[in-house]
Amino acid sequence: MGLVCPRDGSALVSPEDSGRSTFSRLGVHHCDECSGMLLNADAALSVISRDKLHQMHESFEQDGAEVDLDCPLCDSRMRVREIVFTRLDDTEMDSLELDGCPTCSSFWFDAGEL
């Protein structure tokens, strides 16, 4: 069996089986049931620097609160953390609670978060 959604247990659709524009080209798996998306570390490196990914990984490892979600990639318990992204013009976006895996540096985006 392939990867499963940490929210509802549905099979995740792989990028190869998806026609989902930019997200599928980045290697993002998605859930057709809840519209959540899984961004693995390799895919994240196509949009953020290695240093930023390392900082995010450490923040989940040290400051993230454990949640009742298992990582679809490595089965580790995921953690949640409030994240504020900065736009290219240096203004901050609204914060969101992002689920991340402290083991493999993958991220789960609930519907509407990405």
Number of strands: 6
Query: Which segments are poorly predicted (pLDDT under 50) over 5 or more consecutive residues?
Result: none
- CA-CA gap between termini: 26 Å
The ordered string of helix (H) and strand (E) elements is HEEHHEEEE
Percentage of helical residues?
10-25%
The largest sheet, given as strand count, sense and whether it forms a barrel, is: 6 strands, antiparallel
Judging from the principal axes of the Cα atoms, what is the shape?
A: globular
Derived structural class: alpha+beta
Walk across the major sheet and give the strand order: 1-2-6-5-4-3
Q: What's the helix count?
A: 3
**Average residue-wise pLDDT:** 84
Strand content: 15-25%
Domain module tally:
1
Q: What integer value in Å does the Rg equal?
A: 14 Å
